[in-house]
Amino acid sequence: MLNSIAASLRTVRERNPLVQAITNYVTINDCANILICFGAAPAMCEAKTEVEEFVGLVSALYINLGTLTEEQYEASVLAVKAATRLNKPVVLDPVACGAISRRAKLVQELTAVGKITAIKGNMGEIKSLAGFAAKTRGVDSLDDGLDGVEACISLARKYNTIVAATGATDIITDGERTCLVDNGVPLLTRITGAGCMLGALTAAAVGACEDKFTAVVASIVAMGLAGEMAAKAVQQELPGSFRVKLFDSMYCMTEEDILKGGKVRCL
């Protein structure tokens, strides 16, 4: 599995996928920069009068509900319809869907009008969408992860998609294949945007690679491993220094780093 994950990183850098992001304003710059460091290209095109045309130019579409405006709501529906029509992969980050009914409604609408390639969220969000009891606080998950694999598999089968639930151990499944990823460090929870950046990386990977499931796993391994490399590079556990090193570590990551440091278990 690690060989395929390392190959996915190489494919992203060879193909330089263009990712269209309708995303969280708090972290939009971080998403753009981590995409460049990963080997992809960002395009933060979200105007509802432009998104349908622009989808035709990109490798993948990333939708993050973190700061969902009315413009973004309408643009997301239009963009997903266009992406489905053009067979472009879509990654959805359903931020706070368990806490705000309007966001859950949009998820339902997006899955009804188009094909979602991958849903990436925290355990609380994933459980909420799957109909399992979940504990959330705004955009954050308070869920302990019990029944996590079952919830992910249920949601993957419900929407015929790949589901990735992030946490101390990340869970990725397409309803048949399931992998657990143990890469990452606590400092990733001490900065804004780690989840948003991961969603953008996931879009880049599925936009570049044929095997979408392995691509999703690869993006999660890369983000967690970059966090580990960044934590080792800072002298103290300082979030600001860590953030800078996170970008540097992603930029410098090699296939060999993945082969040596990837922590993946396939069930």
Provide structural commentary.
The structure is a single chain. The chain has 267 residues and is α/β, with parallel strands linked by helices. 51% of the residues lie in helices and 16% in strands. It has one domain (2-266): UDP-N-acetylmuramoyl-L-alanine:D-glutamate ligase (3-Layer(aba) Sandwich), CATH 3.40.1190. The strands form 2 sheets. Strands 2-1-3-4-5-8-9-10-11 form a 9-stranded mixed β-sheet, with helices on both faces. The chain starts with a helix and ends with a strand.
Q: For the record, what CATH class applies?
A: Alpha Beta
CATH structural fold name: UDP-N-acetylmuramoyl-L-alanine:D-glutamate ligase
As for the number of domains, it is 1
Strand content: 15-25%
Q: Unreliable stretches, pLDDT < 50, 5 or more residues?
A: 135-144
Helix content: 40-55%
Overall mean pLDDT stands at 95
Task: Give the structure's gist in a few sentences.
The chain has 267 residues and is an alpha/beta fold. It has helices at residues 2-15, 28-38, 51-55, 70-85, 101-113, 123-130, 148-159, 194-208, 212-233, 239-252, 255-261; strands at 18-22, 41-43, 60-64, 90-93, 118-122, 136-137, 140-141, 162-166, 170-173, 178-181, 264-266.
Jot down its keywords.
alpha/beta, 11 helices, 267 residues, two-stranded antiparallel sheet, 9-stranded mixed sheet, UDP-N-acetylmuramoyl-L-alanine:D-glutamate ligase, 16% strand
Secondary structure layout:
Blueprint: H1 2-15, E1 18-22, H2 28-38, E2 41-43, H3 51-55, E3 60-64, H4 70-85, E4 90-93, H5 101-113, E5 118-122, H6 123-130, E6 136-137, E7 140-141, H7 148-159, E8 162-166, E9 170-173, E10 178-181, H8 194-208, H9 212-233, H10 239-252, H11 255-261, E11 264-266
Parallel strand pairs: 1-2, 1-3, 3-4, 4-5, 5-8
Antiparallel strand pairs: 6-7, 8-9, 9-10, 10-11
